[in-house]
Design brief:
about 100 residues, mainly alpha, two-stranded antiparallel ribbon, 2 strands, about 10% strand
Amino acid sequence: MNKRRQSTLFLSVWLPLFAAAMFIAYVRPWLAQGLGGERVLRASAGVRGGRNQWWVFDEATRTAHPLRTALLSLSDVQIGAIALGVVAVLLLWRWYHRRRV
């Protein structure tokens, strides 16, 4: 694999997944704490025993900050699905662009 293909593969796959993981782990809790959100945890009853979290806000906070609270109200699984969707779109774009060149 040449250097350019490696860098585009890195940008297409690993960068969106890393950004989503950092957003879930660090940015979301910090933003939710600043807005006074209440964290909701749901533990999975599956074999792996994962957990899912999101935040809920009172009506005054939701009306004052509609975009932030909507983003923080998404669960971890939904953000992960969005990140995988971004990876799929980037890989399709990369494949299509390589075929045209």
